[in-house]
From TrEMBL:
The keyword Membrane does not apply. PANTHER family: HTH-TYPE TRANSCRIPTIONAL ACTIVATOR CMPR, HTH-TYPE TRANSCRIPTIONAL REGULATOR. It comes from Acuticoccus sediminis. PROSITE patterns: HTH_LYSR (PS50931). The keyword Protein transport does not apply. Transmembrane segments: none annotated. This is HTH-type transcriptional regulator CbbR. Residues 1-56 form the HTH lysR-type domain. It comes from the Bacteria. InterPro entries: LysR_HTH_N, LysR_subst-bd, WH-like_DNA-bd_sf, WH_DNA-bd_sf. Belongs to the LysR transcriptional regulatory family.
Length: 301
């Protein structure tokens, strides 16, 4: 059974005859007759009472089904056109765990501008997000440093400052200036291997001629590290964008360590081997066009 056969059936019914149906379909009358005959042969029944060309019970049943098929196809074509134009579709954001503090606000902006899109957010450490990007589970990612693999297009979104933090009652918090060597007697609260924050801290210490101190405690989330610092367990090196609420509440303070804040960049990245859908292209253009307006202010006022 073909669409041509179904359209010939509906046209003969609507036009009450083969000749008029052929004119409507811009076909010859023999061609329409052949389509109709093939359909009746396939089903093993006649579909019209001839010569009036009134559909019988079999014909009426199939005509109703043919109209439903045509309606669904028209809807599918409209949805495909919407997907191509970016007016519909699903977009999956990926963000390293440091970015989860501002990404919900960014998604709210995108949703307000493009409510017709289906948005989803995946949060993980750097290794997990890059794997999701490479495997196609994530459409684009916001991260602190573009990877070598997969090969990506990268757009700068804004500054990404990193700082050393303690509770306000810590003795180091009373100092006007601090050199990295003065931190070495402290317990370092650090992220797990594979974390971008940890890699940046290790490079910073290496440039200062130091390595990780003898006492470190490893955590798999910035949130737990913040609570541990507030409790007095140790000091930490974190993105300033993860501690805005605690700074405003004076539960944490930033140490004046020489060479800080370490300012990197936030990037929006997507694999170059996957052309963006219409929806994804719209979202990327919108996010890049915000020029980092969604990022938390630092230093805090």
């Amino acid at each position: 059974m073909t669409l041509k056969q179904l359209r010939a059936l509906v046209a003969v019914s609507e036009c009450a005859g083969v000749t008029a149906a052929a004119d409507k379909l811009r076909l010859t009358a023999p061609a329409v007759s052949m389509q109709l005959k093939s359909l009746e042969t396939l089903l093993g029944v006649e579909l019209f009472d001839r010569p009036a060309w009134a559909p019988n019970a079999f014909g009426r049943e199939l005509i109703a089904a043919a109209r439903r098929v045509d309606w669904e196809l028209q809807g599918a074509c409209a949805r495909i056109a919407a997907l191509q134009s970016g007016k519909a579709g699903r977009v999956v954001f990926g963000v390293t765990s440091t970015g989860k503090y501002f990404t919900p606000g960014l998604m709210a902006r995108v949703n307000s501008a493009m409510p017709e899109l289906d948005l989803s957010l995946v949060v993980g450490n750097r290794e997990a997000i890059m794997a999701g990007l490479a495997e196609g589970r994530i459409d684009f990612a916001i991260c602190g440093r573009p990877p070598r693999v997969p090969i990506v297009d990268a757009a700068v979104l804004g500054d990404h400052p990193h700082v050393w933090i303690t509770p306000p009652s810590h003795p180091l918090a009373r100092l006007k200036t601090i050199v990295p060597a003065q931190l070495m007697d402290e317990v370092f609260l650090i992220r797990e291997p594979g974390s971008g924050t940890r890699m940046l801290m290790e490079r910073l210490l290496a440039r200062a001629g130091d390595t990780l101190p003898a006492r470190t405690i490893e955590f798999d989330s910035n949130e737990t590290i913040k609570q541990a610092v507030i409790a007095g367990l140790g000091i930490a090196f974190l993105s300033a964008h993860t501690i805005t609420a605690e700074l405003d509440a004076r539960r944490l303070t930033v140490l004046p360590v020489a060479g800080t804040p370490v300012v990197r960049q936030w990037f929006l990245i997507r694999p170059v081997d996957r052309p963006p859908s219409g929806a994804l292209a719209r979202v990327i253009e919108f996010v890049v066009g915000l020029n980092g307006a969604f990022l938390p202010a630092y230093p805090r006022e």
